[in-house]
Design a protein that fits this description.
- By secondary structure, this protein is an alpha/beta fold.
- The chain has 3 domains: 109 residues, no CATH class; 247 residues, TIM Barrel; 132 residues, no CATH class.
- The chain contains 20 helices and 20 strands.
- A hairpin with a 5-residue loop joins β11 and β12.
- It is globular and about 90 Å long.
Length: 558
């Protein structure tokens, strides 16, 4: 016979309860043998997320069980087991906006963002897509031929999706944007992640409107979905509103859209989802998550009240998401979904080279710095990169300082030019220009023509040679150029490394994007349960609030 004495432990398990929170209306009924009083077994039961979790008190000792059931209380009887509180089962799918799951055909509200140059690779998109997790291919900076090959490969592997492709704003080369849009329309790529946009362009509007139509019920059908990544209210407003009438008129006059599509354009927003980008890797405004997300959610609500869209735009978040704690924080602040970026770059499926992955796996939160961006160099735009193990940030900043100080290469003092040739370019400036000119003659002869007569532009193009190649060196693993690797990275990478330290995920070779996604989402669910119980009155030691990656997440049905 099981008695109270046989199930109670004499050791302190670190659990207490606020007396004012006692549950007097219900009682727990079940076998005492299922109640755990030891620390490890208690935590194991807290981790069984697909079952309820009952916190009970037996002879003054608090225990935990997943078994038994609740029954109406009887105030006239004295119970051997007192119910303190309980937590319902929880599944990963409960986080975020359920409309996000149904719209994109995914199993939970987790997305991996695009990292340019194919760092967010075909392998990454396919691996996640096969597990019904949305991933965006890093199309930025790739040739049309390379992008077309990626589209074919991903669509062949994921004929029903889910997948997305990046459409990065190219202010200096709008033709690049247009070629990507043409390919997306040609191959019926139904979801794009729009990033780095400062304003709406005819290209992004064309993609959106070309997918508008009416279904059999005469309802508006939006085939071409847009996930817009923004960090400023003024840019968010443009994607939250319908397409500008001026651009719609231009597209109609050019015969790119139909009269019906032009009419429907005024009734739908430019984006289905807005990803609020906080302190992220690459292009970023270093916004604090706790400030920018509520602001954009409030802005969405204002614009929804004005336009009354049939399906309100969903607001997700990116930047700084690298642990279960940050993921849970985002969801609790109202994020419809979370997007990870930097942490995926260190995974097996990433397009980064092995040397880069090792540097990323060693990074700490303070190992990031802002450096000039290749694609918006002349505008002074910066992006966030890893500074540990590379000289790129300092050398790139030096190039920008020279560009700002002088109007031509020839004006730069001879000693500075020689230093550039020896330490940065590792070839003469004349050789760099020769290679740049040969590239532009094939890809952008108009810009080459302008540079010949514009010394300032010529200098910028020479400097951009280094800035552009440095990120490719990081992906390809260019030998001898390790100190010049440009590695886009945000502080989430350092947070992730802190979290996985001492676990199997500390090694880059063990980091797989699906596993990382499952660990973060499972951890968020576990931490939510613990916090939920604490709010109800449970006082638990820090031991119960720690979730470390474990090789199996089989306890949670996903």
């Amino acid at each position: 016979m099981t008695t109270v004495d046989t199930v109670l432990s004499k050791h302190d398990n670190g659990l207490n309860f606020s007396s004012w929170s006692y549950n007097k209306n219900q009682v727990w009924k079940g076998s005492l043998e299922t109640v755990s009083f030891e620390k490890q077994t208690i935590k194991d039961k807290l981790m069984v997320l697909n079952k309820p979790c009952y916190i009970v008190k037996v002879a003054g000792k608090i225990g935990v069980t997943n078994e038994g059931y609740l029954s109406p209380g009887d105030n006239g009887t004295t119970l051997q087991v007192e119910l303190l509180t309980f937590a319902a089962p929880i599944r990963i799918q409960q986080f975020g906006d359920p409309n996000f799951l149904s719209s994109h055909g995914v199993k939970y509200a987790y997305v991996t963002g695009a990292m340019a140059g194919g760092i967010a690779s075909e392998e990454m998109v396919i691996a996640l897509g096969k597990e019904q997790i949305l991933s965006s291919f890093g199309a930025g900076g790739l040739t049309p031929e390379r992008l077309e090959a990626a589209i074919n490969r991903i669509q062949q592997a994921l004929p029903q999706g889910p997948y997305a492709f990046n459409l990065i704003h190219s202010p200096n080369e709008p033709a690049i944007e247009r070629r990507a849009v043409d390919l997306y329309l040609k191959y019926q790529v139904r979801t794009v992640e729009a990033s780095a946009f400062l304003d709406l362009t005819p290209n992004i509007v064309y993609y959106r409107l070309a997918g508008l139509g009416l279904n059999n019920a005469n309802q508006i059908e939006i085939k071409n979905k847009i996930i817009a990544k923004i960090s400023r209210r003024e840019v968010a407003t443009k994607f939250l509103q319908p397409a500008p009438a001026r651009i719609v008129k231009e597209l109609l006059e050019q015969g790119l859209i139909t009269e019906l599509q032009a009419t429907l354009a005024a009734k739908v927003p430019m984006a289905d989802d807005i990803t609020v980008e906080a302190d992220s890797g690459g292009h970023t405004d270093n916004r604090p998550l706790v400030c920018v997300l509520p602001s954009i959610i409030a802005l969405r609500d204002e614009i929804q009240a004005q336009y009354h869209y049939q399906t309100p735009i969903r607001i997700g978040v990116a930047g700084g998401i690298g642990t279960p704690q940050s993921a849970l924080a985002a969801f609790m602040m109202g994020a419809a979904y979370i997007m990870t970026g930097s942490i995926n770059q260190s995974c097996v499926e990433s397009g980064a080279c092995e040397h880069t992955k090792k540097l990323l796996a060693q990074a700490e939160m303070a190992d990031m710095i802002m450096a000039p961006a290749a694609d918006m160099f002349e505008m002074g735009v910066k992006l966030q990169v890893l500074k540990r193990g590379t000289m790129f940030p300092m050398r790139a900043q030096k190039l920008f300082e020279l560009y700002r100080a002088y109007d031509s290469i020839e004006e730069i003092p001879l000693a500075e030019r020689e230093k550039l040739e020896k330490q940065v370019f590792r070839k003469t400036i004349a050789e760099v220009w020769e290679g740049t000119a040969a590239y532009l003659s094939q890809k952008n002869p108009e810009k080459l023509g302008k540079a010949v007569n514009n010394p300032k532009l010529k200098m910028a193009l020479i400097f951009r040679w280094y800035l552009g190649l440095s990120s490719r060196w990081s992906s390809s693993g260019e030998k001898g150029r390790e100190v010049d690797y440009q590695i886009w990275c945000g502080p989430a990478m350092g947070g992730f490394n802190d979290w996985v330290r001492g676990s199997y995920l500390s090694e880059p070779n063990n980091r797989r994007v699906v596993d990382v996604a499952n660990q973060i989402m499972t951890g968020a669910a576990f931490l939510y349960r613990v916090q939920n119980l604490k709010i109800q009155g449970l006082q638990a030691s820090n031991y119960y609030s720690q979730y470390h990656p474990v090789r199996s997440t089989s306890l949670l049905e996903i």
